[in-house]
Write a structure and sequence with these properties.
homodimer; alpha+beta; four-stranded antiparallel sheet; 3 helices; 42% strand
C-alpha cells in the first residue's frame, strides 16, 4: 500500500476551498481508487494523507483535469507552501480497545 | 528516509498530555535521531508524523522507557484508538514560491 502525505502552510481557506476539498476527496475515492483519505487542519497547518493500492493510481490522480485546477488554486491562493511525499507502507499496527 | 504516521482518535487531552507531547518530541529529536516532527490536532483527530533515517531508530525510540509510559497513558487516557504506520519515503516534492 502507498500513501501520499500532503503538508501545507495555509494562507487563506475560503468557501471555495471547502467545496473543492470535498470534491477532490470524492473524485479520488470514486474514480481513482483512493482507499482512504484523512485530513487535519489547525492554525496555519494542513496535513492530509491519502492511501492507494499502487503508484500508477497516484500518478493518474495527479493528472486529473479538475485536480490540476485545484493544485493551481492551491499554489496561487490557499497555500503559502506545501510538500508532497509519496510513501510505501512498510508495516502498521493499531490500538483499538 | 522513513516516517511514522500516527493517527489517533482523541478522548481527552489534558495539561499532562501537552507536557508529555513536548517531552517526547524533544527526546526523539535529541536522543534518537528523529529528523523532523510535525503534528496537527483538530476536533477529535490527531495526526503526527515523525521522520527518520532508518527503521532501527524507530524501533529503538519505540522502546524508550519514557516513551513506553507515554504510550500506556495514550492507551488508557488520551486516545480512544490509534493507528501507527511505518512508511518509506519513495519520492517527494515541494512548492515553495
Amino acid at each position: 500500500m502507498y500513501a501520499v502525505i500532503f503538508r501545507a502552510e495555509i494562507l487563506e481557506l475560503d468557501a471555495e476551498y471547502a467545496a473543492m476539498a470535498r470534491r477532490m476527496r470524492d473524485l479520488a475515492i470514486d474514480q481513482y481508487g483512493c482507499m482512504e483519505f484523512v485530513a487535519c487542519t489547525a492554525d496555519n497547518t494542513e496535513i492530509a494523507i491519502s492511501y492507494w493500492e499502487n503508484e500508477e493510481q497516484i500518478q493518474q490522480w495527479k493528472q486529473n483535469a479538475e485536480h490540476m485546477v485545484a493544485q493551481e488554486k492551491g499554489r496561487t491562493k490557499w497555500y503559502g507552501s506545501y510538500t508532497v511525499q509519496v510513501v510505501e507502507v512498510v508495516r502498521a499496527y493499531s490500538f483499538i480497545p
